[in-house]
Amino acid sequence: MTPDSLHDRVVVLPYHADPLQQLARDLIRHHREQLPDLTGVTLLVDDPQVSGPLRRQLLDAATEQGFGGLVGLDIRPLRDWVQSFVPDTVRVCSAVSAELLLVEALRPYQHLFNQASPWLLASELLELFQALTLGEIGLPADCDSFIDRLQNAYGVRDSLRQTLGREATIVHTLWHAWHEQLRAQGLTDADSAHLLALRHSLEHLDTQHQLWLAIARPPAPAEQQWLQSLLQREQLHLYLQGQIATAPTGYPDQHLQPLAQRLALPATPPPTTAYVRLLESVFDQNDPPLRESARQLAEAAPESPARERLAVLLADNAEHEARAIDLQVRQWLLAGKTRIAIITENRRLARRVRALLERAGIQLADAAGWALSTTSAAAALERWLECLEEDFAHLPLLDLLKSPFVFADADAEQHRLATWRLEQDLIRHENIARNLNRYRAHAHDRRKRLANQADITPLLDLFDRLEAAAAPLLALRRGRHPAARWIAALQQSLQRLEMDRALEQDAAGSRLVQLLEKLAGGVDAGAFELAWGEFRTWLGRHLERTHFRPRPTQQRVRLLGLAQSQLQQFDALILAGAEQESLPGHPAISPFFNQQVRHELGLPQRETHYAERFYHIRRLLEAAPAVLVTARAEQDGEPVVISHWLEHLLTLHQQAWPDQSLLATPLAAQANAAEAFQVAHEPAVPLPSPSVQPVPVLEAGLLPPGFSPSDYQQLLDCPYQYYAARALQLKPPEEIREALSSADYGERVHRCLQALHTPVAGLPEPFDAPFEPANRAAAIARLEAISEAVFADVLADNFEHQAWLARWRAFIPGYLDWQIARRQGGWRVSQTELRCEGQLGAVAIRGRLDRIDRADEGQAILDYKTGRSLPKPAEVRSGEAIQLPFYALLQQQQAPEQPVLEVAYLHFDKADKPLKLNCSLTADELQPLGEAVGERLQTLVNQIEAGQGLPAWGDADTCNYCDMALLCRKPVWQT
Ligand code: SF4
């Protein structure tokens, strides 16, 4: 075959052409005689995104030839197709096994890569090994020769050889270890198998078989050779798109240069239109100075060739950019365009645009989709694995049980009831936070204790089923096990949870099931052993890397990445997010070898990345009759650098045609206008009226019967809080406390002191000897013993609670010193934890008094405080903090014959300081203060009953700890 006839079979299309349409028409015409049966013809395209549009083009072309359909035509990616030529004797290592195998191979060499994660290292190495294999770059058998080669490439002196040796040793050792592992397993890596298959296909391909290939990536050297052979055998038609230059002047031309050189393709003719000349100038690195280029362009075309064809939107920020894209797409749809593409590498922008368009009822066909790990199906799986890791902790367990994916076949009502009982009875009321056996035991206990006849069988059944589902995985939690066994155990576990069938019914769920099947099928070639943590990392990585693409009902608007847009043409397109960080973006930095060494070794370099990116960008600028390029000026308050090529385009255009701007100024203004955000079908919902400070009036009958001191204090601090919390009885669900809170600690201290002075069932006897210096040690010992008993249950639950007990024990000696002194002052403990009720006119009052002391002249009321803060004495004396005078009022009604001589707090604040009474009120102060506090309460109750509103007026301290803040919405009305 002559070079000319070889070139007859290679079609290089300019950027503005539609390669899929051209290929489809040529193929149909070429095989016209055998239509509609195209058996023996294979069409190879790399990206599955291209297959759909290509099929449509083929059908159109067949219809033009009078055929309504085609049969026998095989459309596949090159790599898939060629795989069928791998000899039967070769066992190919799957991608799943390759990663595991390399992690396994890395284990003995942990010392070479310090603390680096073997998973990350494996993924970097697999990329490197793939490039080495496909580039047919062999590493010498001995490491020294490899170091020599690198030393030459780096151009370093002998003194730096040792430093260099480390990098070379890692790569060399791991490369050989990896191949050793493959040999031991009788496997061939997928890339070597690919090269072998290419060679075999040349020997075994039916000589009548015809291949048609459209390719937009530079093929590996072995693939180039394969293409050349098939072209020479007249079994291949090859379609390329771009500019072939003898000496490329910019990145876009470099992309296909290696293949063009290999096939000795002639240079394509220089650009003929003014628009193409403008674009070529933008990407031409050898172009004359900008002013000169601009002058030449303007001379050749007085009118800007980009007008009506290319526009640039420079957005104020990311939201403005997204809104402009949303608006432009809607305008194009209204104008009747049906093939619209949004091409971006910025996933954050893509997500926002998707949300805006979906708001307007426009579905995007998103080629990237999203990571499987972000779907609700994967979240349910994750929660299940957390249940196993955290001993069925309440949070993952409740999330799991409320997910629609578990026990999907069970009686839904019964399952809901059992879950509700678990949450309300055991978790919230019994405060059981984890462990199936504890849940079970407390379900029985509770039933006995409350003489509750409720049937707990569904609850117990639920625990049994969870236990049975957990068994296959829990059996593997210790030690290392083959990856295949882990997956089998996980699948069995999901089956017992009845999750497998529910997942199948869900689009993302079925993708998850497929992933598990792929993992199960991919690891059977070897016995790669993983511990639990490694299994979790491995599974997590696959959930991250596997993408889920919901099937859209409409295909009019497509969301694509740069590479996914290859070979396609559109009615209109938006090249979005043209910032330097995304277009072209930065190549992933490999930890191995610098650019010079990569060049010497023949590995892909940074330039390869830029050539590919700029090739796609350049092509897209001609891939539609209407192109909008967008970029934003800032992100999260930080300035953003727009792409240099875009900046160059704008400057060049401005200099060439100063009075014809490329900027889409009207669109930018529209996108900033409020109307741009409205969509036509949106119902006209009136805006809610502005929030104001709430002042509700309490309906008759809702006033709670009686007041405790905290009710009264709440009413004073914020009447609205009282209204919501006490009258309406709204309260947030109590948090499950796995750790003791300061309130729990306070309660236990109260019990310790109560038991020291008065009998408490289930605790050691009170100290019955007099509190005097001679008995100090014995009294301390008794209080220590009581404290041990009071804290015993929480210590059993959580050893960290020792800290709370230790905190309390530090106060014990000081308390007894204070108690001895108090006794010497004539005071005896009379009652503890006394519940009292009383009456203030028509208002009922109640309270629990921590301690009543008596002396010959009268009584004293003490309130223990264990928190950090106390009311200020001035607030107590002014009646703003009402607790102490309120207690005096109550107790005076219980024992009117004994005057209340003193009311005070005993504050356990700092164990290293002597204890003393705080905010002490004497009999003289109590008399008027108690009366005032009592009268004010009666007045307030009268006013509420008369319909006076209860305003939200909490101060900063009250609002900081308010559970009703979400209800009163203070930040909204306060501004
Ligand atoms: S947030 Fe403040 S104003 Fe609102 S109810 Fe709570 S305490 Fe009152």
Can you give me a brief rundown of this structure?
About 50% of the residues lie in helices and about 10% in strands.
How would you explain this protein's 3D organization?
The protein folds into 5 domains: 28-87 and 195-239, Rossmann fold (3-Layer(aba) Sandwich), CATH 3.40.50; 95-187, no CATH class; 306-369 and 552-657, 3-Layer(aba) Sandwich (Rossmann fold), CATH 3.40.50; 372-545, PCRA, domain 4; 709-959, Lambda Exonuclease, Chain A (Alpha-Beta Complex), CATH 3.90.320. 51% of the residues lie in helices and 11% in strands. It is an alpha/beta fold and 975 residues long. The radius of gyration is 40 Å and the shape is elongated. It starts with a helix and ends with a helix. Helix 13 (274-283) crosses helix 29 (644-656) and helix 21 (457-474) packs antiparallel against helix 22. The strands form 6 sheets. A 6-stranded parallel sheet has the order 6-15-14-7-13-8, covered by helices on one side. A 5-stranded parallel sheet has the order 1-5-4-2-3, with helices on both faces. The protein has a 5-stranded mixed sheet with strand order 18-19-20-21-22, sandwiched between helices. Bound molecules: iron/sulfur cluster. Iron/sulfur cluster binds at residues 718, 720-721, 952, 954, 958-959, 962, 964-965, 968, 970.
